[in-house]
Amino acid sequence: MNKKHKISRSDIDKAIAKKFPSLPKDKISQALNAILESMIESIEIDEKIEIRGFGTFSKKYIRPRKFINPKTKAIDYIGETATVHFKPSKSLIRK
What pTM value is reported for the model? Predict the structure, then answer.
């Protein structure tokens, strides 16, 4: 069975602090925030982010679609939406 594990920002902070104990925790947190903010800003303006050996992040557009409210049977439409798409590198994918 393939379990998915979620990693939070604080988990990344702890892992970096464990690997580099001489770095102050506030500096680690500031650096991580700066990296994540720049990634978010880049994806917002439709730039692709590639991290070699890890994968690529890009913005994916989901086409407009209609839906039916099951309670009222009313037909409504959802406009185009965007989401972040992650494609892992080949080295991340286990065979």
Answer: 0.71
